Amino acid sequence: xxxxxAITNQKGGVGKxxxxxxxxxxxxxxxxxxxxxxxxxxxNATTGSGVDKQGLAKTVYHLLLGSADIAAVRVRAEAGGxxxxxxxxxxxxxxxxxxxxxxxxxxxxxxLGRLDARYDYVLVDCPPALNLLTVxxxxxxxxxxxxxxxxxxxxxxxxxxxxxxxxIKARLNPALVIDGVVRVxxxxxxxxxxxxxxQLKGHFGAKVFDTLVPRNVRLAEAPSHGLxxxxxxxxxxxxxxxxxxxxxxxxxxxxxxxx
Length: 259
Description:
Layout: E1 3-7, H1 16-29, E2 34-38, H2 44-48, H3 60-64, H4 70-73, E3 75-77, E4 82-85, H5 92-98, H6 107-112, E5 121-125, H7 132-140, E6 143-148, H8 152-171, E7 177-186, H9 191-204, E8 208-214, H10 217-221, H11 229-232, H12 237-254
Parallel strand pairs: 1-5, 1-6, 2-4, 2-5, 6-7, 7-8
Antiparallel strand pairs: 3-4
Helix pairs in contact: 1-12
């Protein structure tokens, strides 16, 4: 049975899409079937997966509005080895069009109800906002991964996100849990980063991934080539960090270590 994981943080520029694309490629490299859903109108996960977002006949927009099914929307991210439900700017209109619809928070869940068994993990790259698209992701997800930088304002934003997750859990998705917080763009020479990291571990305990994703030029360069870091430069620190994070996630979810 597929595990649906929403990757979210309402703060922009925190490595959310980088985490989504690289985790998808890393899980695929570990032999897992992966579907990545781009739920951000910017379409960065689509571009970063090597798919031209301008030339798409059908996108997640059509899926949410019920005019296309998964089979019509799905494309293959060949280099990363995973499937993708792509997005482009059309998705920005979905929020407006869904406002008056009944069960609008459950549109993604209804669409994914017809998933086949090929996917072990379904990753949802959420927009950097606590909007209707993010609510759709949290309503259909089994769990949440929160990428965050270890800086002061990130802690404040995290509190807001945790409160939102609690509300979704209470009203729309009682089974929703936080899989973990992943520390990204981490600089271990930075005293503040170390301090915030310690605060996170003190509050979230084992839910903080052991893996630290460093600031890494290769991670920043890879999307412009339509590749995950693992395909762009497998030996880079960034690629290896996400591979280690994928192993950690698999161990948490499946109860054993895989190489």
